[in-house]
Amino acid sequence: MSARDNTESQTTSAQDQMVAGSAWMTAGSIFSRILGAVYIIPWNIWFGAFYLQGNALYGKGYNIYSFFLIAAIAGVPSAIAKQVAHYNALNEYGVSVRLYKRGLEIAIATGIGIAALMYFGAPLFTGGDEHLIPVLHSLSWAILIIPTMSLTRGYFQGFQQMAPSAISQFVEQLIRVIYMLLTAFIIMRVMKGNWVTAVSQSTFAAAVGALGGLLILGVYYWRRRREFQDLVANSNNELVVPASQLYREIIAQAVPFVVLGAGITIFQLIDQYTFAPIMHMAGNYSAEHLNDLFALFGVNANKLIMITISLASALAVTVVPLLSEAYTRGNKREISGQLTNAFLMFEFVMLPSALGMSAVSRPLNIIFYGPTQEKLASSILAFSSYLSILLGLYTVVAALMQGISQNKRAVRYFAVGTIVKFVVQWPLVYFLGAFGPLVATGIGLFVTCYLIIHSLDVQFGINYAQIAKRTNGILMAALGTFALARAITLIGGLMGSESRTINFLITIVAALVGGYFYVYMVLKSRLADDILGSRVAGLRRRLHIH
């Protein structure tokens, strides 16, 4: 086999791995996100008049928790996945096992330290909202468990084994949602209790779910232990890496992951701590009204758009180990091909998802949150759906930079975007109200994404001609999906119904018609084959598309 044939074979294999890995991670992430959104319907009904206040409190607590959690995990899972893939590419599986064990020690230590800081320092992070203290106390318990669980997921991903991560993620979310709904019903409906207590139990569900997810990973590890042992036994065993060097590698790779992984959360925290003060300068608004507005743009819309953003996240965690292997081999052509494939796969799933959600924003909002402030809430959700494209793109490009060990540069670019967000935040919130933080986030992330993509192109070359040609096809099919879904939504909206059942039916019909149109167009034009490979030919035959 010639060198060129070998390169092409490696590229094809990498693309197959990316598609297969993305399929597992996308499935796990999507089902988890859907579960994380569906619970909202009964949860809001049981909270009654307190549901917007409860959502605002829940969202504020989770934003702070997410930042602490990322600090506790310290980027170790993604760093472990990247470094494990690096050593596996060198056939040094023994080093990979030692790396995992050292990472576990770091994760446990940081988990204990950050959990203690969050629990005992809770009053310092409330921003004046005393209701946040019990919520932060309940969330701190999850930080004791999740670092170990996330680290183990990263270890599996480094071996290109995505199924354990995806399934444990789904089980974690399932147990969390069951606990949330059970405690919310008992406290709010049976005991007629306090809504703050109910929110605190809903957030404590994160710890309960994490235990379930960790148990699933433990079962997978036990079943595959012989496979790992055989790989170690057949390693080259030529590298002798001291424990101190392993620690340094993990920390050096992990710290930038903290900043980049917390990127969206950092932007949300900026909104959380600046929105109310700026709005108080703009007008005489009550704290309750501003909490309601924060719930609409900072919590409610976020829960739904994160379903589509999770598609990009799934792709991101899949591409890091693959890029790391290509980078280790020094194969620039393979890196360029994977970058091009990553962008195309992102567009392939993100554009129709975001446009489709925007098209059904009104009925979707009523299904999950009811008719309260329906017009404003629907407009915010539609705008957030467009914004989700930039949020998802940031997730992908940050992962691409990490995959080629350009963490520090990526952090610098994110810092520039954050400064831009700060600069435009005040005037945009002052004049645009609840839409201001969303516009500011979009501008800041656009700057970051542009800088990263430009850097990748300069170093490795991105096949813009190929991307542009296929983007045209994706965009046309996605716009057709949007038009059909929007038309069905408008026709259904003529009934003027605020019934959840009626709006659910409208959403389902719009999603099925629009979704089928998109699938038909990308299969008919063979666009899906170009992006996902020849395996989609079987789907075309089953759907009788020629």
UniProtKB/TrEMBL annotation:
Residue stretches spanning the membrane: 34-52, 64-85, 106-125, 131-152, 173-191, 203-222, 250-270, 304-327, 339-360, 380-401, 410-428, 434-453, 474-496, 502-523
Keywords for this protein: Cell membrane, Membrane, Transmembrane, Transmembrane helix
Domain of life, per lineage: Bacteria
Cellular localization per UniProt: Cell membrane
One Pfam family per UniProt: Polysacc_synt
Listed InterPro entries: PG_synth_SpoVB, Poly_Biosynth_Transport, Polysacc_synth
Protein's UniProt keywords contain DNA damage: no
GO cellular component, one term: plasma membrane
Membrane topology summary: Multi-pass membrane protein
Cross-referenced PANTHER family: LIPID II FLIPPASE MURJ, PST FAMILY PREDICTED COLANIC ACID TRANSPORTER
Designated name of the protein: Polysaccharide transporter
UniProt source species: Levilactobacillus paucivorans
